[in-house]
């Protein structure tokens, strides 16, 4: 598994457990790339859904992927503050094509006041049965929900007060206008 270079533009590919593509983000600028952590930034990037529909993100975002965590975090910079969208997922892999992960349906939406809600539990249960998620995956995901909510409560990692702002400032140094 390679490591993308700082300043490099990469795609992000999200898959489902059955191997089918779920979603592709066309352009994300790598702000930090190691074997353990990839932090990127994007703004108004094209997203392609599995059915071919496309849409464009509305605001700047900082994305955080960790090779040891079964989640990834998107910090979106909006007028009323930073909103986070956390995907429960496999740890990332990176190859020459893209940064890749498996999306496991469950999401946590975190608001600027750091309150949060768990989303898509029905979708998770449906897909768990349909795609046959192994019991070990279910246990790993539940443990990572706990890890993620602990990080939110403790304001650790991407939830730390200055994390998103710091990385957004770096993103602006690469941004093409």
TrEMBL record:
Gene3D superfamilies xrefs: FomD-like (2.40.380.10)
Binding-site list for Mg(2+) 2: 105, 107, 120, 123
EC class of the enzyme, as a word: hydrolase
Active site, UniProt feature: 23
Catalytic activity annotation: a ribonucleoside 5'-diphosphate + H2O = a ribonucleoside 5'-phosphate + phosphate + H(+); a ribonucleoside 5'-triphosphate + H2O = a ribonucleoside 5'-diphosphate + phosphate + H(+)
Keywords tagged on the record: Hydrolase, Magnesium, Metal-binding
Domain of life of the source: Bacteria
Required cofactor names: Mg(2+)
EC number: 3.6.1.15, 3.6.1.6
Any one Pfam family match given in the protein's UniProt record, by short name: DUF402
Binding site for Mg(2+) 1: 87, 103, 107
Residues that span the membrane, as ranges: none
Domain DUF402: 18-156
HAMAP family for this protein: Ntdp
Reported function: Has nucleoside phosphatase activity towards nucleoside triphosphates and nucleoside diphosphates.
Family named by the database record: Belongs to the Ntdp family.
Protein name, per record: Nucleoside triphosphate/diphosphate phosphatase
Organism phylogeny: Bacteria, Bacillati, Bacillota, Bacilli, Bacillales
């Amino acid at each position: 598994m390679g490591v993308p270079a700082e300043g490099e533009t990469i795609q992000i590919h999200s898959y489902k457990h059955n191997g089918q593509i779920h979603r592709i983000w066309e352009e994300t600028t790598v702000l930090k790339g190691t074997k353990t952590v990839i932090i990127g930034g994007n703004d108004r990037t094209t997203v392609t859904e599995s059915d071919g529909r496309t849409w464009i993100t509305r605001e700047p975002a900082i994305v955080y992927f960790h090779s040891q965590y079964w989640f990834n975090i998107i910090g979106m910079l909006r007028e009323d503050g930073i909103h986070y969208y956390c995907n429960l997922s496999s740890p990332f892999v990176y190859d020459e094509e893209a940064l890749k992960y498996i999306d496991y349906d469950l999401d946590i939406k975190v608001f600027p006041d750091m309150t949060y809600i768990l989303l898509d539990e029905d979708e998770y249960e449906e897909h768990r049965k349909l795609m046959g998620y192994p019991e070990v995956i279910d246990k790993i995901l539940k443990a990572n929900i706990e890890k993620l909510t602990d990080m939110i409560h403790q304001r650790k990692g991407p939830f730390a007060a200055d994390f998103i702002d710091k990385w957004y400032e770096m993103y602006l140094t690469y941004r093409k206008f």
